[in-house]
Amino acid sequence: MTAEAVPESISGGHLVAKALKAEGIDVIFTLCGGHIIDIYDGCIDEGIDVVDVRHEQVAAHAADGYARITGKPGCAVVTAGPGTTDAVTGVANAFRAESPMLLIGGQGALSQHKMGSLQDLPHVDMMTPITKFAATVPSTERVADIVSMAFRECYSGAPGPSFLEIPRDVLDARVPLEKARIPKAGHYRASTRQLGDPAAIERLADLIVHSEKPAILLGSQVWTCRATDDAIDFVRALNVPAYMNGSGRGTLPPGDPHHFQLSRRYAFTEADLIIIVGTPFDFRMGYGKRLSPTATVVQIDLDYRTVGKNRDIDLGIVGDAGLVLSAAVAAASGRDDNGSARRKKWLEELREVETKAFEKRLPRQLSGSQPIDPYRLVHEINEFLTEDTIYIGDGGDIVTFSGQVVQPKSPGHWMDPGPLGTLGVGVAFAMAAKYAQRDKEVLCLFGDGAFSLTGWDFETMVRFDLPFIGVIGNNSSMNQIRYGQAAKYGEDRGRVGNTLGDVRYDEFARMLGGYGEEVRDPADIRPALERARESGKPALINVWVDPDVYAPGTMNQTMYK
């Protein structure tokens, strides 16, 4: 009598890893915990790297950053209870920034449900409002199936994060391989690229052809949709001046005749046609009030709910930015006159405004004052960037300065938190960017308050040999808030709850095995940046900037008015 063959079995953690591999994920960002270690074991077998950080917020931010850089979803894995709650900020940031990522959280065993197990919390209830999908995995057989479901939900409409909690006994249990549903790579997600209503695209083409003074704002979804080439074709074929924000920065290189930055307010006041691509009418757009009330306004977005929100529009198109812009060019190209020639004067008018604004600010950018004018710091950074430098902004006032001056030279080379305004993304984004694209240089500008939140993961950068250039604009203050307090309550109460110590972050970097340097003279900024580049290490340049100088964007914030 022959012994009956024992069916091959697999654990829940290994099923997670198989599902991650099917999605094309090659790294997870994590902080260890007893609930989740079987996932690590599965990742080893599937060839997925495990990057362990010092704070779960960093793991979630890194997964967000990985998605932005690669175009693939990111993944963070954290333990139950405080591990998951520590990651909430990173998930919320990804939610507002429309970044596809999966957070996997541990959970107590199903056999101990509602018994008060270690680190038991209602994670799904907490995560539901800030994700596109949140669920508990109920059985080991369903692990890979529900992981793939979570990834699919990340791409419904505008992308965003998903969350799964997996009970410890579900992860640790083994089931016959034949009973586990394991979706096949490339067979459980369809293309999400939508062209939009053809009649609406024809109308858009007609509006462009007859426009004398059009302007287009290329927002983050231009990069999300990888629509750079289509956007460039659009502005060049139709001779339309382009402004860029968020991850859309870098779509056009500095110096391109259609690249504008400093004349946006003027353009949005004088234009007869304004096309908003992949940007909501949120606080960054004055809730739509900054657009001329007489202009024809077109909004293109992946998410129906965003189109026409906070402001009436003349034409709304729900679809992929690249497909819509490409189709509009095709529709306009069939006309005898697409209007591009007569818009030459409009571009010249905007260029004159742009030049005057640049020349007015240039003395500040070249200032030799001490403490250092923040404009001088961001000017030096902008001059230092190469075609392959990914720029990251992490902070309040100092990064507001950089938004006016720093111009990434390539698409996908600008990263900022997004509309949640989260401080502390810098090290995590640098980690993800350098991990995903090791041939790229990564430079991150921090406010000293922002770096303080998650700066200990500088050690993770050292440990995993992920060199980057960190620059801290150090004014020993949370200066964006300080300005508002002084403006609202008077200078005598302007230093309440916003003043930091004079911290030598350069010494901190050296202590952790990186490169550190202090700068007090503006003439020393560029040499210090060069030495940081040459060091081949994670680096921090601690630049002392004037605490009594505020960015115009800080002074104009509506919350202070």
Please describe what this structure looks like.
The chain has 561 residues and is α/β, with parallel strands linked by helices. The chain is 39% helix and 16% strand. Strands 3-2-4-5-7-6 form a six-stranded parallel β-sheet, with helices on both faces. Strands 15-14-16-17-19-18 form a six-stranded parallel β-sheet, sandwiched between helices. Strands 10-9-11-12-13 form a five-stranded parallel β-sheet, sandwiched between helices. Helix 15 (374-384) packs across helix 22. It is globular. The protein starts with 8 loop residues before the first strand and ends in a 6-residue tail after the last helix.
| Low-confidence sequence ranges | none
**Biggest sheet descriptor:** 6 strands, parallel
Please identify the oligomeric state.
single chain
How many runs of DSSP E, i.e. beta strands?
Answer: 19
- Compute the gyration radius: what is it? 25 Å
User: Which strand order spans the largest sheet, edge to edge or round the barrel?
Assistant: 3-2-4-5-7-6
For the terminal residues, how far apart are their CA atoms?
87 Å
Query: How much helix is in the residues?
Result: 25-40%
| Mean pLDDT over all positions | 94
Classify the beta-strand content into a percent band.
Answer: 15-25%
